[in-house]
Amino acid sequence: MAMFWWSVAAFCFSLTLIIETTSWCLRARAEVTNQGLYNSRVNIYLYTARFFYLVFMVLMAWAVDRGATQHQILGVISAAAALGLIAHLIYVFVGSVARFADRRILAILVPEVTNRNDIPLRFQIGHALFGWSAFAAFFLMMGVTLPFVVASLFPESRMMISSLGQAVNAVGTVIVLFKVDSAMYQSMDTGRLSWLVGYFVAGRIAALAVVLSASLIAFFAFGLF
């Protein structure tokens, strides 16, 4: 039974990550004349990620309180990062999947708009936004997952560890607000979001790859001791 709930936790966190990424890809399909409409409706879609995020947090907290080992916690995090990375790679490199998913979601969110931009999504790294996106995503993911690993080692200090995790999360949030979102919203005003979004997505993929590599290394390292 525990394995089932850990699988649910991993799936929910990976779903949170792909929703956060694709929300900007959906915004990139807006015209200059309906950006406000797209933003308001896509925010509804983005907010659904909060539900899956909360499910992940509750299940992970439950696992730690029930005495899950750091090896088990790292297994869930590794599975979540792997699922998230696979979903991102399919979304980016299988164009038909991205087009189908975006059209279906937008048909629900903005049914009154029938003429939709069909933008090609490219994996791009030659821009400062790539680095900021990767940096922010890494801190946000570590701020969420690392406290559970440390709390499994020091359960008596889990409240303090949770607070430190929020501090790490805050670093990522500041980067998002001042470097990532700022550039993305400005590009909407100039009609360049469809070009810039590829750097944002690539940065998040890079961060996911780093988190997955680190969690797998730690997973096998703890498994040996």
Summarize the structure.
The chain has 225 residues and is mainly α. The protein contains seven helices and no strands.
Instruction: Please summarize the sheet with the most strands.
Output: none
Q: How many domains would you count in the coordinates?
A: 1
Distance between the termini: 25 Å
Estimated share of beta-strand residues = under 5%
Task: Output mean pLDDT.
Answer: 89
Quaternary structure type: single chain
Structural class: mainly alpha
Classify the helix fraction into a percent range: over 70%
Task: Assign an overall shape.
Answer: elongated
Q: How does this structure look, described?
A:
By secondary structure, this protein is an all-alpha fold. It has one domain (2-223). Helix content is 82%, strand content 0%. It is elongated and about 55 Å long.
Structural features:
elongated; mainly alpha; single chain; 225 residues
Helices and strands in order:
Layout: H1 2-27, H2 35-65, H3 70-93, H4 95-109, H5 128-153, H6 158-189, H7 193-223
